[in-house]
Amino acid sequence: QVQLVESGGGLVQPGGSLRLSCAASGIVFSEYTMGWYRQAPEKQRELVAEIENTAAANYADSVRGRFTVSRDDAKNTVYLQMNSLKPEDTAVYYCNADRIFWPSAVYWGQGTQVTVSS
Hints:
Blueprint: E1 3-7, E2 10-12, E3 18-25, E4 32-39, E5 46-51, E6 57-59, E7 67-72, E8 77-82, E9 91-99, E10 106-108, E11 112-116
Parallel strand pairs: 2-11
Antiparallel strand pairs: 1-3, 3-8, 4-5, 4-9, 5-6, 7-8, 9-10, 9-11
């Protein structure tokens, strides 16, 4: 059974920081590109950042320079360090696992709420 369990969300003031974690089980972690997506109320889910098994990373323009994605394959965990948070970063953040080999497979976590407000 595949599980992606996010943690680390919460309420933070503008300019603050949070670190999200996503622990994966039931998959061969090194075979997956791991991503973070977010969905704000009444908006579509969007890619925030992703990291390949080579550690190559890709970021949305809105977070580049403020967020950092990393992975620890020994712990089957992906992280999202979020600095200089803005109110517009408020959303539910979802962990995503996308298998890079055939057959393809995509898994999602349950989401963790991040609220940036004073």
